[in-house]
Amino acid sequence: MTFSDQLRPVARVLKSNGADGQLVLGLQGLDTDVFISLVTRKNVPVFIFFDGRPVPFFLTDVCRRGDTKVLSYLTGIRTQADIAEVEGEKLWMERQALSEDEDPMEDLSLLVGWTLLDKGLKAGEIVAFEDFPGNPCVELENGALVPLREDLILSLDEEKRILDMDLPEGLLNV
Known about the structure:
The chain has helices at residues 3-6, 32-40, 80-86, 95-101, and strands at residues 7-16, 23-27, 46-50, 53-57, 59-65, 69-74, 90-94, 115-118, 121-132, 135-140, 145-147, 153-157, 162-165. By secondary structure, the protein is of the alpha+beta class. A hairpin with a 2-residue loop joins strand 9 and strand 10.
């Protein structure tokens, strides 16, 4: 089993916020409230890879900054040299910790590799997830972007990795 089987990226260190080690974290495919709950109430660590190995960090003084960002401190990161070392790095969490607290479809990036059906007919393979604010979409192999709206979803088969939707006429031709 590899680290990527056990860990999932949840955020990226975007930049520092001041000179005392506070960081701006951009969340990736994880609800802000779920993230804050995990790292504060449940004290779940995040990991940053150094030399190919995950190193655990705990977050302190976490506060929301908009819908997809948080301000926080990572244990042991206080100097500008420390900040420079982690800036731009992905933050990972154990998949097990996420699965206990998360709706299975909360991380829509997990749909990459699934087959998308339009009313039972194959529309294509999902090759990417685009988290546009207020309009998450999946990208198909032909480049078509499909909005992930609940009212369009007919069914999900996690075992077969199939998402069946009722797409508006002509959407796949755009």
